[in-house]
Write a structure and sequence with these properties.
Chain lengths: ~170, ~575
């Protein structure tokens, strides 16, 4: 079962290694991990996507909380959180596929951000399912190179995780 | 006596001043190039803080661990960069697995040389990341004092554990203003919810066959009396893990001893038959539960622990309480009604009788041979309630766990989780430094061979440690598994060494005796217990002695092996 976990961490030396090391040591699999500074540069926020049953999810969250630099851990429940991922994909630019790429980009509300006679680079933002669907459309057209950010996510409405009570 | 006013000083001196401020009176370690400045300050502060020089950094790490187990204080070890630091690794991992509070301080090459594969440079914070509660690389001398203070707080708070602080040499020589502080506080503990306390008490009140299961998380807290009281009141029996030994006095009639892979028959059986397990500071390790799918099937479980992650980690529990274990136990106890479960008593007393019959039959069959049980009978008779028993790892450790009788807590020093062969001598030295009293080390010829270099330390400091080498010429525990599960193919477990442990002791400057019979052992042990310094007894046991009972790994109480008849 997929779970998205938000982790508020101190922006300190080795934090990413500590978190990644914990997953390795305990045998938990990470599907995706993103990290970036928050509005307060002293803290970063990670979004970790894992696959596991309720036991694994509970263990992951409790083990994360034991790391000294981890300040808050929160499960972002499906349907009660928004998720986005960014995809950059470079596709072959040929007279045969050019129109289809541009049409797909239009429908997926993607942007063509680089254009050469050999290839096009397309930027897409959306939920992971949309990203996967877009990749499926591009695949037969000749994907040259691909780069995904992994998921970032925020709880909806009043579901807030910030630096209060740290 | 600590620094009382703000003063400019070097990082090296800040290390020493902060240790003293934290109440540290003894540290263990080994000098080297990148901790020269710290050692210089140790020299200058030698009337305020005692440093014990070991033969090897590993010995120092185990000594700091043994020191902590006896006192409950944070053990401190210092080592230089590179090999000095890596030699601490086994000791740090040992402390981590047994939740022992420790602060390890390592030097490192100057910050300008970090990352260049400089002489004696290793990334010790990277290496120790998975085996410490937390670790630090200090790059600014202004953060040094507070880092050390925080390290002490982390090491001793909640579920204790080791913390490492890596200090590059230029941070040790840099100067800043030192602002004196006090002993670091503990982190606040979670407050156990009233609902959970109520639910736990309800389960106890509804139970017909309660079993209180004591682990390392409860052992050091002096809860023995409170636990025995609740057992009396609710007609419960008490068992423990290896780490829970010495929490309960053996004189307590409710106490069945250690359960698990090599636990007492009655304790493991009662654990298996109970309808309620009240788990205090245990982590349901595989050595204690066997197959978790079959473990305590018919029982509800209440678990009280300092570590939230322990709840439901290995075994699903019915009520998990996180917070101060003493407090939570007290609150639950108050809500428990007095109860009488005559059937449960009959069942357990029958387990006990069965255990005695088996043990007596085995002992009778051994005749005059010097058996582990005879050795421990003599040790029990001659030691007093304060004597610390340290062990190495293997068969001797399990026999010690089964046979030694304890009267007060923090008197059993043994590597439970990591199972570190070579742990014992260093730990015994630390324990003796801590207690200022005689320590008995139970070891085997395999374990002792790993770190017998620490005899040098014991002699240098005239440590009163009686070393009982249970010598069988084989790696007995591994051999036992080979006998049972590997078709008696004794791959690399027959040592066939010619080491004369008596001469070895003498070569180090210690006393040594050989004991081949019970009478010889008795005489030698009496002499050792009266001796002022290290005293080794090389005593012989049969290479095919078994530690029994035994739950096969991944097995359950139904598969318990209680006799070696037909197995050898």
């Amino acid at each position: 079962m997929r779970a998205v976990i938000a982790v508020y961490v101190e922006n300190k030396y080795g934090v990413l290694a500590r978190v990644a090391g914990l997953f390795m040591r305990r045998g938990f699999n990470i599907d995706s991990l993103t990290v970036g500074e928050t509005d307060d540069p002293a803290y970063s926020r990670m979004t970790i996507v894992i696959n596991g049953d309720e036991n694994v999810r509970e263990q992951v969250m409790h083990q994360l909380m034991k790391l000294h630099n981890v300040k808050k851990v929160k499960l972002l429940e499906e349907g009660r959180a928004v998720e986005r991922e960014l995809l950059l994909v470079k596709v072959k630019n040929t007279p045969e596929n050019r129109a289809e790429i541009m049409a797909a980009a239009e429908i997926y509300r993607a942007k063509i951000i680089d254009y050469t006679t050999a290839s096009m680079c397309v930027e897409v933002t959306g939920e992971p399912s949309k990203i996967r669907a877009f990749i499926d459309v591009m695949r037969p057209l000749g994907i040259v190179e691909i780069c995904r950010t992994g998921v970032v996510s925020l709880g909806r409405g009043t579901s807030i995780m910030d630096r209060s009570d740290i | 006596m600590q620094a009382e006013k703000n003063e400019r000083m070097t990082g090296a001196r800040i290390v020493i001043e902060t240790l003293i401020e934290q109440g540290v009176t003894d540290v263990f370690g080994y000098p080297g190039g990148q901790v020269l400045n710290i050692y210089d300050e140790l020299y200058l502060a030698r009337d305020r803080i005692n440093h014990v020089l070991t033969a090897h950094e590993q010995g120092a790490s185990h000594a700091a661990d043994g020191y902590s187990r006896v006192t409950g204080k944070v053990g401190v070890v210092i080592a230089t960069s590179g090999p000095g630091a890596t030699n601490l690794v086994t000791g740090i991992a040992t402390a981590m697995l047994d939740s022992i509070p420790m602060v390890a301080i390592t030097g490192n090459v100057p910050t300008g040389l970090i990352g260049r594969d400089s002489f004696q440079e290793v990334n010790i914070t990277g290496i120790t990341m998975p085996i410490t509660k937390h670790n630090y690389f200090v790059s600014d001398v202004r953060e040094l004092a507070d880092t050390i203070r925080e390290a002490f707080t982390i090491a001793k708070s909640g579920r204790p554990g080791p913390v490492l602080i890596d200090i590059p040499k230029d941070v040790q020589t840099a100067v800043t203003e030192f602002v004196p502080g006090g002993v670091s506080p503990f982190y606040e503990e979670a407050v156990v919810s009233e609902d959970d306390i109520e639910r736990a008490a309800e389960l106890i009140n509804a139970s017909e066959r309660p079993y209180i299961y004591v682990g390392g998380g409860a052992a050091g807290h002096g809860m023995g009396e409170a636990i025995a009281k609740l057992a009396e009141k609710t007609d419960a029996y008490i068992g423990c893990t290896l780490m829970g030994l010495s929490a309960l006095p053996d004189s307590c009639g409710r106490f069945l001893g250690m359960q698990g892979m090599h636990g007492h028959y009655a304790s493991s059986m009662a654990n298996g038959e109970a309808d309620l397990i009240i788990a205090l500071g245990v982590r349901f390790s595989d050595r204690a539960t066997g197959n978790t799918a079959k473990y305590a099937k018919g029982a509800k479980i209440i678990q009280i622990d300092a570590d939230q992650a322990e709840i439901n980690k290995n075994v699903r529990v019915d009520v998990g309480l996180i917070g101060n274990i003493v407090d939570a136990f007290e609150k639950i106890s108050q809500r428990c009604r007095a109860a009488s479960h005559p059937e449960w008593r009959r069942t357990v007393e029958e387990f006990r009788a069965e255990e005695r019959r088996t043990a007596d039959a085995a002992e009778a069959a051994s005749g005059d041979a010097l058996t582990p049980r005879k050795i421990f009978d003599i040790i029990n008779e001659m030691k007093d309630g304060d004597t610390v028993i340290a062990t190495d790892v293997g068969q001797h450790q399990m026999w010690a766990a089964q046979y030694v009788s304890f009267e007060r807590t923090r008197r059993f020093v043994s590597s439970g989780g990591l199972g570190t062969m070579g742990y014992g001598l260093g730990a015994a030295i630390g324990a003796a430094v801590a207690s200022g009293d005689r320590t008995v080390l139970i070891t085997g010829d395999g374990s002792f061979g790993m770190n017998c270099n620490e005899l040098a330390t014991a002699v240098s400091y005239n440590i009163p440690v009686v070393i009982v080498v249970m010598n069988n010429g084989v790696l007995g525990m591994v051999r036992q598994w080979q006998t049972l599960f590997y078709g008696k193919r004794y791959s690399n477990t027959v040592l066939g060494r010619k080491t004369d442990f008596v001469k070895l002791a003498e070569a180090f400057g210690a006393e040594g005796r050989r004991a081949e019979t019970a009478d010889e052992f008795r005489a030698a042990f009496a002499e050792g217990m009266a001796h002022g310094g290290p005293f080794l007894i090389d005593t012989y046991i049969d290479k095919d002695e078994f530690v029994l009972p035994m739950l096969p790994p991944g097995g359950s109480v139904d598969e318990m092996i209680t006799s070696k008849e037909g197995l050898i």
